[in-house]
């Protein structure tokens, strides 16, 4: 039996990396791999366990077929290594930190994927983005507006599991694990 692709999406600042870090050991116990993305910025700036590469390196990797999925967002390129296909074929679950903007293309390639939308209250999101210190106020305002556009359409989708991360991270981890273990809220 093939594994399942779990496609975690949400706005920048929603806590995807924090959630993955907090849930990593428990996901591993369940045989779920967390994929290390390739991003065209340094690993130190990425804020996640990503492989940082130059735009030229990324383009070469993409041309060589190194990625199962790749997309551009916010001036950066992102890639998911093609080895996920081997893991899925071997029956392993694979969790990907994905892109809301690339969801339609991902669904075409992986029609049975489980989409988990990490949401956060807009006021909390604004504070997190400000505390991060990576973007200007104008950039943050644009991210918040983009988030509102994406969230409205995704929340209405029946096959998207909405996971609120406005509160305690431990609660979000439990809800994610419940979803993956077949909890009715995820059905």
From TrEMBL:
Q: Which reaction does it catalyse?
A: alpha-D-ribose 1,5-bisphosphate + ATP = 5-phospho-alpha-D-ribose 1-diphosphate + ADP
Query: Where does the record place the Guanylate kinase/L-type calcium channel beta subunit domain?
Result: 2-184
* UniProt-listed SUPFAM superfamilies: P-loop containing nucleoside triphosphate hydrolases
Name the domain of life.
Bacteria
**Major enzyme class:** transferase
Q: Does the keyword Transferase apply?
A: yes
Q: What stretches pass through the bilayer?
A: none
A GO BP term, please?
A: organic phosphonate metabolic process
Which GO molecular function annotations are given, in alphabetical order?
Answer: ATP binding; ribose 1,5-bisphosphate phosphokinase activity
Q: Where ATP is bound, by residue?
A: 10-17
In what pathway does it function? Metabolic intermediate biosynthesis; 5-phospho-alpha-D-ribose 1-diphosphate biosynthesis; 5-phospho-alpha-D-ribose 1-diphosphate from D-ribose 5-phosphate (route II): step 3/3
Q: Which UniProt keywords are given for this protein, alphabetically ordered? A: ATP-binding, Kinase, Nucleotide-binding, Transferase
Q: What is its EC number?
A: 2.7.4.23
Query: Which family is it part of?
Result: Belongs to the ribose 1,5-bisphosphokinase family.
Q: What does this protein do?
A: Catalyzes the phosphorylation of ribose 1,5-bisphosphate to 5-phospho-D-ribosyl alpha-1-diphosphate (PRPP).
Name of the featured protein: Ribose 1,5-bisphosphate phosphokinase PhnN
Gene label:
phnN
